[in-house]
Design a protein that fits this description.
5 strands; 11 helices
């Protein structure tokens, strides 16, 4: 069985037009933000449900049911992970890899990145959102095979991220892997969200600087922040929380 694990409904909407064979699994989470506690998976889902402020049934049908497709995948399955390079997407990808690592079947795993954008493109950190069918096929053709060690590294990265163990996360980022081409930069960006001296994190400092330079409207701040710090991959929800925090202070 071939699976395409897509990060969000935006990609899922246009994906069928590319006519790439396989079943779609949609990741509808934003694990870069909110409560990640839970000794087991059931408790974790409960924490996420409360964090997102939706009902258990809604969370199950939108989120959990998609992950169950991974757990129930048959032997000799192939998983294609359509994620982007930024922190938001990488954290979700680590979580997906923790699932894949824990299923006892023969499997092939591939990372499908936004290679159609090219490394010199200004929108390099941006996503699949505007990719057409031809470009999605290009990305698929350029997919990166993940070895067992790469999948395990994803599991370790998720464990360190979930427990907020920044030292372990930093050590793991030193492992070179074609599966995570910008791991060092992404992990460093995450670590700089939580300075040890208790000062403001990197995103807050950038927002503060943007406002000081005359862009006080949130939508303008959002636009400028994305130009400066697209490595974070923050959506409206994540950035609005930081914006409100900076404005109130």
């Amino acid at each position: 069985m071939i699976y395409h694990i897509l990060n969000g409904d935006a990609l899922a909407a246009g994906f069928p037009d590319a006519k790439i064979q396989g079943e779609i699994i949609v990741v509808r989470e934003a694990l870069i933000d909110g409560n990640l506690s839970g000794e087991n998976l059931y408790d974790f889902w409960e924490s996420r449900t409360k964090c997102l402020g939706i009902t258990e049934s809604e969370y199950y049908f939108k989120v959990v049911k998609e992950f169950e497709k991974i757990v129930n995948a048959p032997d000799n399955s192939e998983f294609n992970l359509w994620f982007e390079y930024d922190l938001f997407c990488q954290v979700n990808m680590w979580f997906v890899l923790s699932f894949i690592n824990n299923i006892s079947i023969n499997k092939k795993v591939f990372a499908v990145y936004t290679t159609h954008l090219g490394k010199t493109n200004k929108q390099f950190w941006n996503g699949f959102g505007r990719a057409n069918s031809n470009e999605l096929n290009i990305c698929f053709a350029n997919r990166t095979p993940l070895e067992v060690a790469d999948v395990r590294l994803g599991q370790y990265l998720w464990n360190a991220y979930k427990t907020n163990d920044l030292e372990i996360l930093n050590l793991l980022a030193k492992n070179p892997s074609p599966a995570f081409p910008y791991l060092k930069e992404v992990v460093q960006a995450h670590i700089e969200r939580f300075p040890k001296d208790g000062s403001k994190g990197r995103p807050e400092r950038v927002i503060e600087d943007i406002i000081k330079n005359g862009a006080s409207d949130f939508h303008k701040v959002f636009s400028v922040f994305w130009e400066k710090e697209s490595i974070y991959g923050f959506g409206d929800t994540q950035l609005k929380q930081l914006y409100d925090k900076v404005v109130q202070s």
